[in-house]
Amino acid sequence: MPLTEPVPDTDPYYECLDCDQRITEEVDDRLCPDCGGYLEDLTVPR
């Protein structure tokens, strides 16, 4: 899996660890709406 750089914005920005889809809307359960995989928050520095 390729490493991704954190997004510098303060708006929520998530990437699905299973299908690599990125979404910009706030999610409560941290699950991808398309495949159900876990969403990683890209706005948090690693």
Looking at this protein, list some descriptive labels.
Rubrerythrin, domain 2, 3 strands, globular, 3-stranded antiparallel sheet, 0% helix, 46 residues, mainly beta
Side-by-side strand order of the widest sheet: 2-1-3
SSE sequence, one letter per element: EEE
Shape: globular
> How much helical structure, as a percent, in the residues?
under 10%
Task: Give the terminus-to-terminus CA distance.
Answer: 16 Å
Computed structural class: mainly beta
CATH level-3 fold name of the domain at 10-39:
Rubrerythrin, domain 2
CATH architecture of the domain at 10-39: Single Sheet
Strand content: 15-25%
**Major sheet size, sense and barrel closure:** 3 strands, antiparallel
How many β-strands, per DSSP? 3
CATH C-level class of the domain at 10-39 = Mainly Beta
Average pLDDT, all residues: 82
Number of helices: 0
- List the uncertain runs: none
The value of Rg in angstroms is: 10 Å
